[in-house]
Structures are given as C-alpha cells and as structure tokens.
Design brief:
Largest sheet: 2 strands, antiparallel
Shape: elongated
Radius of gyration: 30 Å
Mean pLDDT: 77
Number of helices: 5
Low-confidence stretches: none
Order of helices and strands: HEHHEHH
Helix content: over 70%
Distance between the termini: 94 Å
C-alpha cells in the first residue's frame, strides 16, 4: 500500500525536473547556435579572430617589427658588434621588413584580412628571416644529432685505472 505515495512523489519530482530541464535545453541549443555563428578564434589565448580589419592586423605587424628591431639592436649592443657590421645588419633588416610590409599591403587591399592571407604574410616573414640569416652568416648551429650523423651511436669506452 505504501507504493502509491512513492509513485506519486516520483512523478512529482519528474514533473519538476521536466519543467526545469526544458528551458535549460532550449538555452543550450541557443548557445550552440550562437557559437556556430560566432567567428572562429585562432589558436592561443590572445589570438585574433578571422576575418579581421586590415588596420588592426597592420598595427600588430608593425609592433612585432619594432620588437624585432629592438631585440636585434640589443643583441648587437651586448655583443659589441662593430659599427660597419651593424649598418649591414640594419640594411638587411630594412629589406626584410619592406618585404613583409609589401605582403601586408597586398593582403589589406580590400580592408579585410582572412586567415589565409595572414598565413601568407607569416610565410613571407619566415622566409625573409631565413634569408637574412643566410645572407649575414647567422645560420643555426647543427643539433647534436646532425653533428654525429643520423643513426650513429656513441660508444662509451670504460676508463682504465
């Protein structure tokens, strides 16, 4: 006989949950729809969404160029690089930054930067940095694996006392 009160309380609880769950389900659907319509974020915490306006992208590229120039100047100062060599490095850096600026201007013609255009600008910048490294003789040092040859192992010889 006490099954009836348990069934009644279960049905009341189910009705209460249904009343609460219906608006929550609708809100979840709206949130999913809003997320699908929102512009896709790039990777990382401060990544900019694409497409974005050309002015903001150009400003970020200019800031990065200024930081790069400051780092290069600081390293030359710290390393005691002669003035003639500094002038050569500055000239090469100006050429690289001119190539990057030209790529940014080409991408910004329509006033909007897409993710594909931004990738092309980054590719130009990377290639230009590698070219300046080769031009100035600043290639990266070979890694340990490259020095001893791929696949070769070191043989440890025990010391005899």
């Amino acid at each position: 006989m006490n099954k009836l009160p348990r069934i009644a309380s279960t049905l009341a609880a189910l009705a209460a949950l249904t009343a609460i769950a219906a608006p929550a389900a609708a809100a979840a659907e709206e949130t999913a729809a809003a997320a699908a319509e929102a512009p896709r974020q790039g990777r990382g915490k401060g990544a900019a969404p694409f497409p974005q306006d050309a002015a903001g992208f150009s400003k970020r590229v200019d800031e990065k160029s200024a930081k790069l120039r400051a780092r290069v100047e600081a390293k030359m100062q710290k390393g005691g690089v002669p003035e003639a060599r500094r002038a050569e490095v500055r000239k090469a850096l100006d050429e690289v930054q001119a190539k990057v600026r030209a790529a940014v201007d080409a991408a910004a013609r329509d006033g909007v930067i897409t993710q594909a255009e931004a990738k092309r600008v980054r590719k130009v910048a990377r290639e230009a940095r590698k070219a300046i490294g080769k031009q100035l003789g600043l290639e990266q040092k070979p890694t340990k694996k490259q020095k001893r040859g791929k696949g070769t192992k070191r043989i440890l010889v025990p010391e005899t006392v």
